[in-house]
Amino acid sequence: MGRYARPRRPVPSSEPPHRGRGRPPVISVEERRLRLFDTAEAVFQSHGYAASSIDEISRIAGMSKATVYRWFANKEALFSGLVEHRGVELLDNCAKVEAGWPPATALESFLRRVARTVLSPRVVGLLRLVISEAPHCPEVARSFQRKSAERCQSIIATLLAQDPALVEDRDALGEVASLLYGAAITELQLRLLLGQGESPTGPLIDERVRRAIAACLARTL
Q1: Which terminus of the chain, N or C, has fewer Cβ atoms within 10 Å?
Q2: Are residues 85 and 40 in the same domain?
Q3: Whole-number Å distance between alpha carbons of 71 and 80
Q4: Which residues, in sequence order, are CB contacts of 41 under 8 Å at separation 6+?
């Protein structure tokens, strides 16, 4: 499988920030893990998975290799942990559904949040990396798919189920959710993955979502 071209991303500097006198601030274990993930993501996208190393990632993150290996047995485990974290993070950022809103309104709001997140340069770059490494780390790719696109489609199906007028065939909720996600997001995402054009603006995404809903739920609008 050919490699996708990876956009060069700036790698965080290995130079520690200048501090005045006194003891440096203490950061939590969770904050250190997040710093490691951010650094690993930047290094993987800048150099590619194969050319990256735990040595370089730990040095740039400003932590010892022993600390990294305490959390992750090897580079593949770190990559898997990063993808897992980003998948959960993506869903957490999108999954809020406004209580009390009509299902159709909540559906449009949710789809707009998902589209703006999934079509952002950061997520597109990560997805390109996941795809390029899928032959070597297939379970990582499957995990990212489950925790992002498939989970989002499940939420869409749940919103559709709240209003019987949206989908007449109750057995088709999952299929309609998949079609709606695809119409709103997948085509634009594929273009970005192939390097065709720039990330769409907010108004363009909103219009795309409205058209997707109108097309997939035409009989109920």
Answers
A1: N
A2: no
A3: 12
A4: 82, 86, 126
